[in-house]
Amino acid sequence: MKGKEYGAAEMGGAGNSHTTFATGTDKGVGVDWYKTAGEDRYNRYVHTEEDTGTGGGVGYLTTFGTGAIRDTSVGKEAYVETISWTAFKKYAEYMTSKKEKYGAGNFKKGITDSSYEESLVRHVQKYLANKYENGSCEPDEDHLSAIVFNAFGLLHNQEQRKNNADYAKE
Fold this sequence. Notes:
Blueprint: E1 5-6, E2 18-26, E3 29-36, E4 42-48, E5 59-63, E6 69-71, H1 79-82, H2 85-102, H3 113-132, H4 143-160
Antiparallel strand pairs: 1-2, 2-3, 3-4, 4-5, 5-6
Helix pairs in contact: 2-4, 3-4
Protein backbone atom coordinates (compact mmCIF):
# COMPACT_ATOMS: atom_id res chain seq x y z
CA MET A 1 0.00 0.00 0.00
CA LYS A 2 1.41 3.40 -0.95
CA GLY A 3 1.25 5.92 1.87
CA LYS A 4 2.31 9.41 2.75
CA GLU A 5 5.96 10.23 1.98
CA TYR A 6 7.98 11.98 4.66
CA GLY A 7 11.28 13.63 3.78
CA ALA A 8 14.34 14.58 5.81
CA ALA A 9 12.79 17.78 7.20
CA GLU A 10 9.88 15.95 8.80
CA MET A 11 12.10 13.14 10.10
CA GLY A 12 14.79 15.18 11.81
CA GLY A 13 17.58 15.58 9.28
CA ALA A 14 19.44 14.33 6.26
CA GLY A 15 19.18 10.64 5.54
CA ASN A 16 15.96 10.26 7.50
CA SER A 17 12.94 9.58 5.34
CA HIS A 18 10.16 7.05 5.28
CA THR A 19 6.83 6.17 3.78
CA THR A 20 3.84 5.59 6.03
CA PHE A 21 1.97 2.67 4.52
CA ALA A 22 -0.77 2.09 7.06
CA THR A 23 -2.45 4.16 9.72
CA GLY A 24 -5.05 2.96 12.13
CA THR A 25 -6.69 3.60 15.46
CA ASP A 26 -8.03 1.31 18.12
CA LYS A 27 -9.66 2.63 21.30
CA GLY A 28 -7.90 6.00 21.18
CA VAL A 29 -4.50 4.60 20.23
CA GLY A 30 -3.14 5.45 16.79
CA VAL A 31 -0.50 3.49 14.95
CA ASP A 32 1.44 4.70 11.92
CA TRP A 33 3.45 1.95 10.23
CA TYR A 34 6.34 2.94 8.01
CA LYS A 35 9.45 1.58 6.36
CA THR A 36 12.60 3.69 6.45
CA ALA A 37 14.49 3.97 3.18
CA GLY A 38 17.28 1.38 3.02
CA GLU A 39 16.09 -0.67 6.00
CA ASP A 40 14.70 -4.21 5.94
CA ARG A 41 12.43 -3.76 8.92
CA TYR A 42 9.11 -2.12 9.64
CA ASN A 43 8.71 0.67 12.14
CA ARG A 44 5.67 2.10 13.82
CA TYR A 45 4.80 5.19 15.77
CA VAL A 46 2.27 4.50 18.50
CA HIS A 47 0.41 7.50 19.87
CA THR A 48 -2.53 8.17 22.13
CA GLU A 49 -5.30 10.74 21.93
CA GLU A 50 -3.27 12.82 24.40
CA ASP A 51 -0.24 12.84 22.11
CA THR A 52 0.25 16.41 20.98
CA GLY A 53 3.48 15.74 19.15
CA THR A 54 5.56 16.78 22.15
CA GLY A 55 6.38 13.36 23.50
CA GLY A 56 2.99 12.46 24.94
CA GLY A 57 2.68 9.29 22.88
CA VAL A 58 4.29 5.92 23.25
CA GLY A 59 6.82 6.73 20.51
CA TYR A 60 8.53 5.13 17.58
CA LEU A 61 8.93 1.35 17.69
CA THR A 62 10.60 -1.11 15.34
CA THR A 63 9.18 -4.56 14.69
CA PHE A 64 11.76 -7.04 13.42
CA GLY A 65 10.98 -10.04 11.23
CA THR A 66 11.35 -12.22 14.32
CA GLY A 67 8.52 -10.38 16.04
CA ALA A 68 10.83 -8.61 18.50
CA ILE A 69 9.97 -4.97 19.24
CA ARG A 70 12.39 -2.18 20.12
CA ASP A 71 12.61 1.62 20.10
CA THR A 72 13.79 3.02 16.79
CA SER A 73 16.69 5.38 16.30
CA VAL A 74 14.41 8.31 15.41
CA GLY A 75 15.59 11.36 17.34
CA LYS A 76 18.70 9.59 18.70
CA GLU A 77 22.37 10.15 17.91
CA ALA A 78 23.55 8.27 14.84
CA TYR A 79 27.10 7.31 15.81
CA VAL A 80 27.71 4.67 13.13
CA GLU A 81 26.89 6.97 10.22
CA THR A 82 28.45 10.15 11.63
CA ILE A 83 31.91 9.10 12.82
CA SER A 84 34.93 8.24 10.71
CA TRP A 85 36.09 5.03 12.35
CA THR A 86 39.47 5.40 10.65
CA ALA A 87 39.95 8.81 12.29
CA PHE A 88 38.51 7.46 15.55
CA LYS A 89 41.16 4.71 15.57
CA LYS A 90 43.93 7.22 14.83
CA TYR A 91 42.74 9.42 17.72
CA ALA A 92 42.59 6.41 20.07
CA GLU A 93 46.18 5.54 19.10
CA TYR A 94 47.21 9.14 19.87
CA MET A 95 45.47 9.10 23.25
CA THR A 96 46.98 5.70 24.10
CA SER A 97 50.47 6.99 23.24
CA LYS A 98 49.99 9.86 25.74
CA LYS A 99 48.64 7.65 28.56
CA GLU A 100 52.07 6.76 29.97
CA LYS A 101 53.11 10.41 30.19
CA TYR A 102 49.85 11.92 31.51
CA GLY A 103 47.90 8.96 32.91
CA ALA A 104 44.60 7.49 31.77
CA GLY A 105 41.70 9.94 31.75
CA ASN A 106 43.87 12.87 32.82
CA PHE A 107 41.66 15.35 30.92
CA LYS A 108 38.71 14.34 33.10
CA LYS A 109 40.45 15.84 36.12
CA GLY A 110 39.79 19.30 34.68
CA ILE A 111 42.02 21.29 32.35
CA THR A 112 41.17 24.96 31.89
CA ASP A 113 39.72 26.31 28.66
CA SER A 114 42.66 28.68 28.20
CA SER A 115 45.10 25.75 28.31
CA TYR A 116 43.09 23.88 25.68
CA GLU A 117 42.75 27.01 23.52
CA GLU A 118 46.47 27.86 23.62
CA SER A 119 47.42 24.28 22.74
CA LEU A 120 44.76 24.10 20.03
CA VAL A 121 46.09 27.20 18.27
CA ARG A 122 49.73 25.99 18.55
CA HIS A 123 48.84 22.64 16.95
CA VAL A 124 46.79 24.30 14.20
CA GLN A 125 49.76 26.58 13.41
CA LYS A 126 52.20 23.65 13.32
CA TYR A 127 49.92 21.49 11.21
CA LEU A 128 49.34 24.26 8.65
CA ALA A 129 53.01 25.33 8.57
CA ASN A 130 54.04 21.72 7.94
CA LYS A 131 51.40 21.23 5.26
CA TYR A 132 51.58 24.50 3.32
CA GLU A 133 55.02 25.92 4.02
CA ASN A 134 57.15 22.78 4.04
CA GLY A 135 57.63 23.32 7.73
CA SER A 136 59.40 21.04 10.12
CA CYS A 137 57.47 21.85 13.29
CA GLU A 138 57.57 18.67 15.35
CA PRO A 139 57.09 16.51 12.23
CA ASP A 140 56.64 13.31 14.28
CA GLU A 141 53.82 14.79 16.38
CA ASP A 142 50.24 13.95 15.33
CA HIS A 143 49.04 17.57 15.24
CA LEU A 144 45.58 16.71 13.87
CA SER A 145 44.90 14.37 16.79
CA ALA A 146 46.21 17.03 19.18
CA ILE A 147 43.77 19.50 17.60
CA VAL A 148 40.94 17.01 18.13
CA PHE A 149 42.06 16.43 21.74
CA ASN A 150 41.95 20.14 22.52
CA ALA A 151 38.61 20.67 20.76
CA PHE A 152 37.17 17.65 22.61
CA GLY A 153 38.57 19.04 25.85
CA LEU A 154 36.74 22.32 25.31
CA LEU A 155 33.58 20.42 24.44
CA HIS A 156 34.02 18.21 27.52
CA ASN A 157 34.32 21.29 29.73
CA GLN A 158 31.29 22.91 28.14
CA GLU A 159 29.16 19.82 28.77
CA GLN A 160 30.49 19.33 32.32
CA ARG A 161 29.58 22.91 33.20
CA LYS A 162 25.92 22.20 32.47
CA ASN A 163 25.90 20.28 35.76
CA ASN A 164 28.76 22.01 37.56
CA ALA A 165 29.31 25.68 36.72
CA ASP A 166 32.73 25.66 38.45
CA TYR A 167 34.17 22.73 36.47
CA ALA A 168 37.80 23.43 35.36
CA LYS A 169 37.53 27.18 35.94
CA GLU A 170 40.60 29.39 35.55
